[in-house]
Predict the structure.
Amino acid sequence: MTMSRGKIGRQLLGLAAIGIALAVGGVSAFAEAGQPKPWEMTMQTSASPVMDNIEWFHTFLLWIIGTITVFVTVLLVWVMVKFNAKSNPVPSRTTHNTLIEVVWTIVPVMILVGIAIPSFRLLFEQTDIPKADLTVKATGKQWYWTYTYPDNGKIEFDSLMAQDKKPRLLAVDNEMVVPVNKVIRVQTTGADVIHAFAVPAFGIKIDAIPGRLNETWFKATKTGMFYGQCSELCGKDHAFMPIAVRVVSDQEFASWVEMAKKKFASSGTGAYAVAQAGQQ
């Protein structure tokens, strides 16, 4: 039994609509999670002002690139159709066109200037750290992170990938905990090789280099769990060095600090030993 083209077309259109609905529904279902999403094609949902601007700049560039691509494609098709040997057997002998030469010089310059201004503004926002409400030092080690809270006494602990927690390869035993809507300055360094501290939802990525102290910042606008990973090839267990940041309210953070002072207080035996003892 055969089917008409119109009926087949309507069925395909219906399937496409269902697929789009499922995709949108799937994205919205994971919209608040600060982690990769199944079949994700876009960036993680923003949770900081810097990431908001990164997303805006990304969309801005996408429109510019798309417009240029469409224009060049149309131009190429027009040239192939109008100026092939069959349609135009006698080619033009024109060698110069002042207007065209001026336009194709000025327009690209204007496009680059239009890209450069918001680009420089975004770079300045990322590197100009405002007055911090909290400082956290993240030390990259093979292959885990050590977090120190110099503003809150002698709090120092190690954060290792957890084998029995979700999400897989991202969950850790001890999360980095910060308050919501506060400027967090993150200082990074490396204890052995070069690592990189990166949390996509916050729009931060900075190297952790032995013998050097780098710093970045973020201001989380949502509570919840946000995940990242070491983003510099640092050895055989590079893929098992996740970053987990738990954003909580001011009251919850104050309670966590009091607990952490007891559980993770430096005792001269090393933060790793203290953290392991606290879990037993």
